[in-house]
Amino acid sequence: MERYEIVKDIGSGNFCVAKLVRDRWTKELFAVKFIERGHKVLLTPTHLAIVMEYAAGGELFERICSAGRFSEDEARFFFQQLISGVSYCHSMQICHRDLKLENTLLNGSTAPRVKICDFGYSKEAMKMTEVPKVGEFSMRGSMGLDDLDADTDLDVDTSGDFVCPL
Q: Of 103, 120, 122, which Cα lies nearest the Cα of 55?
């Protein structure tokens, strides 16, 4: 970092902070993401790689495509896990904001466990006064993101979109 001077923070996520930096030599501005040290990061000559958990079962979307249709029991098994995961995220004041079948992975066990992934659009719900309960219907998510709790409403509403394909 000797070459760069930190100008200011420009954003933060759950696992990183973005900062505006200035190249000391060229005076050009850049954005740099700082990832918490708890994550394993590998540097190669051409890439920065983050080591993550492997979900051997692949995407839930692919499982649905190959199965064609799930029984009601199997659909309920996966949906209950999804709702439990969304509820946990909300209890930790995290809104995913991009729930879809492609962002749900399965571990490789015979009774697969759902793993919610790709938190790139997630945000901390620091100003929320009340987190909607999972399964509670709300029109606010479809009306816009102006309300303080609209992001969690959006997560709850889009969770319902999983039912039809399942």
A: 103
Residue 29 CA: distances (Å) to CA of 5, 22, 24, 34, 87: 10, 5, 10, 16, 39
Query: Is the pLDDT higher at 74 or at 155?
Result: 74
Q: How far apart are CA 83 and CA 114, in angstroms?
A: 10
| Annotated active-site residue in 9, 23, 73, 98 | 98
157 in active site: no
User: pLDDT tens digits for 19-50?
Assistant: 899 999 999 999 888 877 766 778 888 877 77
Q: Which two tokens stand for residue 80?
A: 């209950």
Instruction: Tell me: pLDDT of 159 over 60.
Output: yes
Look over the chain and give the mean of its residue pLDDT values, rounded to a whole number. Answer: 77
Decide: 89 and 123 in contact? Cβ < 8 Å.
Answer: no
Domains of the chain: 4-51 (3.30.200), 58-160 (1.10.510.10)
Q: pLDDT tens digits, residue range 68-83?
A: 888 999 999 999 999 9
Beta bridge partner(s), residue 45 = none
